Write a sequence for this structure.
């Protein structure tokens, strides 16, 4: 099947993949744009996993003020090279992460950062609530696991639904950025302040 250049261009703009990769994906899917996009994303995610061990000592700090200065966010997003750190695409991504933090108030970056004591307390609370609701013993553990997943999705940045597309998580958006740049990228740290909030 001959793939028109316009279709390759459209797929390239949508995914950030190389021309040859776009052509190959379109040929493999008989010109189906959605299937080709999914195929490239799968490959990109696989490639992103291979980059996870690479060190990230470059990047940017993004500062965001919202609501006429009532909420402020500072986030550090890292990448491997200064070249990528200076691109508009990377800086825009870092700003999107700051917007996400301002809008959703996560407490941690990833679920591995949640202290064991907090997880144990959430687990006990969910077990107690399920028992008080008279749920059968056989399904309580599944209910507890479901509530823990919900807790992570609300409180861990990478598990949250992306504010611009709730069908994707922040982690998936991050993986797409890794695939586009060809570099390991990570959110290193953040702080979020709100006027009048209690200080720890």
């Amino acid at each position: 099947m001959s793939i028109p250049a316009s279709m390759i261009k459209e797929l390239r703009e949508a995914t950030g993949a190389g021309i040859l990769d776009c052509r190959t994906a379109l040929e493999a899917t008989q010109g189906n744009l959605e299937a080709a996009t999914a195929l490239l994303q799968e490959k990109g995610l696989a490639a992103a996993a291979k980059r996870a061990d690479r060190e990230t000592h470059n990047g940017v700090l993004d500062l965001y003020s919202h609501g006429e200065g009532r909420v402020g966010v500072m986030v550090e997003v890292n990448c491997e090279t200064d070249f990528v750190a200076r691109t508009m695409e990377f800086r825009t991504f870092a700003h999107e992460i700051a917007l996400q933090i301002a809008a959703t108030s996560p407490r941690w970056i990833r679920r591995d950062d949640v202290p064991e004591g907090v997880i144990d307390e959430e687990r006990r609370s969910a077990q107690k609530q399920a028992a008080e609701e008279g749920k059968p013993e056989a399904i309580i553990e599944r209910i507890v696991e479901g509530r823990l997943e919900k807790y992570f999705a609300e409180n861990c940045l990478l598990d949250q639904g992306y504010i611009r597309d709730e069908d994707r998580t922040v982690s998936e958006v991050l993986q797409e950025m890794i695939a586009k740049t060809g570099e390991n990228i990570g959110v290193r740290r953040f702080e979020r302040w709100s006027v009048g909030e209690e200080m720890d």
Q: What stands out?
A: The CA atoms of residues 122 and 148 lie 7 Å apart. The helical segments are 5-15, 19-28, 33-50, 82-85, 88-104, 116-132, 137-155, 170-181. The mean pLDDT is 87.
